[in-house]
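debug: dumping io for the single-chain case to check the tokenizer round-trip. Nothing else runs in this session.
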Amino acid sequence: MKLVTGIFLTIILLLISACSNLGYYAQSASGQLDVINRTVSIQSLLDQPDTDPVLKTRLQLVLQIRDFASNKLGLPDNDSYRSYADLERPYAIWNVFAAPPLSLESTRWCFPFAGCVSYKGYFNEQDAKDFAAELKKQGQDVYVAGISAYSTLGWFDDPMLNTIINRYDPELAGLIFHELAHQQVYVQDDTEFNESFAMTVELAGTKVWLDSINPDKFKSNKTYQDFVTRKKRRIQFVELVMETREKLAVVYQADNDDNEKLIQKAAVIKTLRKQYATIRKQWQGYPGYDKWFNTEINNAKLGSIGTYHRFVPAFKKLLAKEKTFENFYLAVTELSRLEKAERHTALENLK
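debug: decoded output
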């Protein structure tokens, strides 16, 4: 299988050999091939007596969650997350974001299959930093973000990675459900639709999973509420960023000269930091976003935060209406066949 995949990746490189982005596609192909070469069946690791006991416990949990995803949630039944890869690094990939210093319009890059996105991913951190440095020389705001997990959208069997396996149990389950949802339904160039759908499956699936493993309803609900609280904090963080982006949009559209706009930009970002400090106190000191705020904040960094929850209320209503995950996926598939504007209108009408 690994040999066949390697040949497949080589063919892809040959097909795009005339492309000006050959170097970028080459690192993408070699990076994915490295992940594949590191991938080992989870069952084989469980069968090996010298596998670390702590890792074994986590791998057993992954298989339990993975079986539940297909058997109870109707998500794709394939080999994704039935294998494990230790990448020997803290992140799976590093995404580079860019935007002009006085504009919120993120730079976009277009790729086969995935469509156009507002980031460029690298398997090597230094490659990402080098590309970011080039963009910075051109005068752009840049931001490099380490990403713990990514989906190949079913083109390959995605393994469980060392970068995510030790997450809080409900978050680990939610992540697997979320990524498999992308394999279930995915629409090019509609991030809000894709992420809102996957987030709905993540939230609903995690609730069903927790109920199934804990006969004590009170404890199950308490764990789920803790999980939801973390998600709500994420939404608060996103809303704070979106509010800041709106303020900056007013600054950038004004008739002031560029120097004045840069001064006002710094003032708006300073206010953002103060607002976060206030929210953090309300969270009883939860430090989840400290790292994000402790480094430079610019248009590229603000643009890396998406409104992924926009259509979650609509998808929740659709799931309640359809009653089963199977019927829900069929309804979402029908929505995915609509034109983008029509699809968004249909979802707005459901909210």
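debug: round-trip ok. Confidence is low (pLDDT under 50) at residues 1-20.
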